[in-house]
Amino acid sequence: MAIRVLLVDDQPLLRTGFRMILEAEQDIAVVGEAGDGLQALDQVRALQPDVVLMDIRMPRMDGVEATRQITGPGRDGPAKVLVLTTFDLDEYVVEALRAGASGFLLKDAPAHELVQAIRVVAAGEAMLAPSITKRLLDKYATHLPSGEEPVPDTLHTLTEREVEVLKLVARGLSNAEIAADLFVSETTVKTHVGHVLTKLGLRDRVQAAVYAYESGLVRPGAQ
């Protein structure tokens, strides 16, 4: 079945460009468009897309709040959000990731990267290298908790090995790199990552990296 995509951007010309690129792919179908966050919420409810290609800065309701309402607690729909931004170090991207986005893509990314991003996010993966997430979080550390807050109770549900894996995910290591670091198989690492996401109620490793910062497990700027 084709991946159902909703385009959300306040610039009609950009939406037209994205539509032309995506509709050239046999496995992707653009099911609708929206010009702001409020329209996006209505369209998500009506069309049930698999992926929402979401601009951040829009009138009436921005992409961060729309993302929060689409993917936040209690939402069990299929829609995953891929955020579009003009800058790769945009403070709003951090907020969008915290709100539940599965990753972000620059608006001037090549067509093949846009198509691949849609496929990756639709498959339930994170379209963003954790190392880039870490760079974003380090740069905008002032937007995060100070680290002096109490450790969340949910962190105590993890085993010692799962905590180790979470720290390495937040540092930007791939499964293969984590496996080499811990002297275990890559399959074992995948299992640990899966347990971490399930226990903490997270959607993907991008949110896991954000959680590691918010919980104080990883400090901004730490290696």
Explain how this protein is built.
It is globular, with a radius of gyration of 17 Å. A five-stranded parallel sheet has the order 2-1-3-4-5, with helices on both faces. The protein has helices at residues 12-23, 37-47, 63-71, 91-99, 111-122, 130-139, 160-170, 175-182, 186-200, 205-214, and strands at 3-8, 28-34, 51-55, 80-85, 104-106. 48% of the residues lie in helices and 12% in strands. It has 223 residues and is an alpha/beta fold. It is built from ten helices and five strands. Helix 7 crosses helix 9 (186-200). Residues 151-216 form the HTH luxR-type domain. It comes from Streptomyces griseoviridis. One of its GO terms (molecular function) is DNA binding. This is DNA-binding response regulator. One of its GO terms (biological process) is phosphorelay signal transduction system.
Cα-to-Cα separation, first versus last residue: 42 Å
Spatial strand arrangement across the major sheet: 2-1-3-4-5
Helix share bin: 40-55%
The structural class is: alpha/beta
Residue ranges: pLDDT <50 for 5 or more in a row? none
Modified residues (4-aspartylphosphate): 55
GO molecular function: DNA binding
Keywords: DNA-binding, Phosphoprotein, Transcription, Transcription regulation
Domain Response regulatory: 4-122
